[in-house]
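#onboarding

Welcome to the new folks! Below is a worked example of what a typical request in this channel looks like: someone posts a single protein sequence, and someone else replies with the predicted structure as tokens. Don't worry about understanding the tokens yet, we'll cover that in week two.

Example request:
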Amino acid sequence: METVGKPRKQTGFRARKVDAGHADLGESELARPPADLRHIERNLALTAVELHPQIVGSAPRPMLWKGEEDTRAFAQRLAGHPAVKDAFIALHGDLGAGKTTLVRHLLRALGAEGRIKSPTYAVVEPYALPGLDAWHFDFYRFDDPREWEDAGFRDIFAGPGLKLAEWPGNAGALLPVADLDIHLAVGDGDAREVGVQARTPRGQELLACV
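Example response:
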């Protein structure tokens, strides 16, 4: 299958074997990493705190998206702010809450063409967009801290470009603090209840535009 594009500085990703029989699990039940790997998480957690001093700001009230048009409009507002090009945006919510739909609308608004697929099995899909590189992560099946280093994820998050992550909790302390946390929940019909939190100065800039 085609990917929309590859970033100008390509990072190697190694293949992973995935059990397709558990695609409909509600919450991932991930094994605790072995003791000799936990220092990786601790060291990266300290680095994340140094790079992203935590600042908390929230939208004045939860948003209600009545349908996909509201999702598209939100994505277009985010895409229109210059700060998005180097942002880390974490998306939270149950299966079917609309995380991937929001990512697709955001990437489209930033100029992505062709098919935009979910990276559930590949963990990450890279995109070369006009004026920026972007990476769409899905940590639903992420369960090996060694892959963080082996696949170059640490370098991606330390460098420029837009990073979008679904199921960020499964990567735990390996991830830096998100600039923006977006929480989605299914409402009545096609509606979505949405909460947005800024955790960095860049996130506060983005929060102001939505």
